[in-house]
Specification:
Length: 399
């Protein structure tokens, strides 16, 4: 332990001189650190004396701290890529996961789990490596336990890792579902984290659920059977925290994106989504507009509710007058989806939508600089193109 402490002290004082050694997978430093983190060494250390288990946990924490040094300083891009490549080649992620499971208590997990999160979110190569490590190490129940009752930072990091996995590919949805179904297979932990006292946990949980439904509808069956999870998610739409409202509107939108399977349980979300059309955060307004369009995308089941709450009126107002091009684009796309249902198309006709949209195309309203910074790919030209397409749809249906 004394040698490791000396190593940490040297790294602290001469970080820029030491880090390059970690960027080489076959350097003496890298090979030594990885050997000391190996399951074989940690097991031998834990059995070497009465203090063995404590020595194994202390060794792992010290070694993890050494591996964290490259991310504690400003490095050039080439060196950072080298560090990622070295850690990947030496299978650091798997060593961290197995060591954490076997030798660390919940209150010791912050650093190793934080490093795992940094690796998975920082380099796409670690996404597959993490998923494979979870399966080969039988770590599903371990992840469930710490996300259920671990320290705040650890809970946040596990949720972020799982969210990134399902955002990267639908191939990982099944694995994440295994983590969150729990030992009772009731997914109750999702309700727990959606109601967590910390807004950051609620927000990341909503984002994760949204990402689980981004590429695939595999999660729909779970939500259809456990409607209390959907109700808890819908409650997040009127959360006092802005990031929670933004991420929950994204999740609710994706819950209606692939099919109409969840329309019945999404009905109560309609008035909350309409309220979010005037949220101070542009991304939240865009999410809400898209979500309302998705609730009319696949079936007419919710047309009466959308009409009752004046969803078409509100989305049309946003499409014509919002200060952000990105929000207008989402609102126009939403209106096009609504046009697929004749009751909502009739509402648009009664609102003289064509006149309002044509008036909009002739307006040249200066936008605040933030409108351009928010999303550079959306311009007035893009918005006008969507506007003209919607006008054509309404004109053709009115003949």
């Amino acid at each position: 332990m004394a040698i490791l402490q000396i190593g940490i002290s040297i790294f602290s004082k001469e970080t820029f001189q030491c880090v390059p050694s970690l960027a080489k997978a076959d350097s003496i430093l890298s090979l030594t650190v990885m050997h000391l983190l190996s399951g074989q060494f940690l097991q031998a250390l834990s059995k070497g004396s009465l203090a063995g288990p404590n020595m194994a946990s202390e060794a792992m924490l010290n070694l993890t701290q050494i591996c964290c040094f490259p991310f504690a300083v400003d490095m050039n891009e080439d060196l950072l890529i080298g560090v990622y490549s070295s850690f990947y080649a030496n299978n650091l992620l798997s060593k961290l996961l197995r060591g954490s499971m076997k030798y660390l208590q919940a209150d010791q997990l912050e650093m190793p789990v934080g490093l795992m999160s940094r690796l998975v979110l920082g380099d796409p190569n670690f996404v597959l490596q993490f998923a494979e490590s979870v399966l080969t190490s039988n770590a599903v129940n371990f992840l469930f336990r710490i996300v259920s009752s671990g320290p705040l930072s650890v809970v946040c990091d596990i949720i972020s890792i799982c969210s990134h996995l399902v955002r990267s590919s639908p191939d990982y949805v099944e694995l994440v579902l295994q983590v969150f179904q729990g030992t009772d297979e009731d997914f109750s932990v999702l309700e727990t984290i959606l109601q967590h006292p910390a807004a950051v946990v609620r927000s990341r949980s909503c984002s994760m659920m949204g990402n689980m439904m981004k590429h695939s509808d595999a999660f729909y069956a779970v939500l259809a059977q456990r409607t209390t999870i959907v109700k808890t998610l819908e409650n997040c739409l009127h959360d006092e925290d802005a990031t929670v409202r933004k991420s929950s509107s994204y999740a609710v939108g994706n819950a209606g994106y692939h099919s109409a399977e969840l329309y019945p349980v999404l009905r109560p979300a309609i008035p909350f989504l309409i309220t979010l059309l005037s949220d101070p955060v542009a991304k939240t307004r865009a999410n809400a507009a898209s979500a309302l369009g998705n609730l009319a995308l696949h079936a007419a089941d919710l047309c009466a509710d959308l009409t009752k709450h004046k969803a078409v009126d509100s989305v049309l107002e946003v499409a014509c007058h919002d200060s952000q091009y990105s929000v207008q684009e989402c609102a126009l796309a939403s209106l096009k989806s609504m046009c697929d249902q004749s009751p909502l198309r009739n509402v648009l006709q009664s609102l003289k939508a064509i006149d309002k949209l044509e008036h909009m195309t002739h307006m040249s309203t200066p936008r605040p600089r933030s409108a351009l910074i928010a999303r550079k790919s959306i311009s007035v030209t893009t918005v006008m193109q969507h506007c003209h397409k919607l006008i054509k749809i309404l004109e053709s249906s009115g003949r």
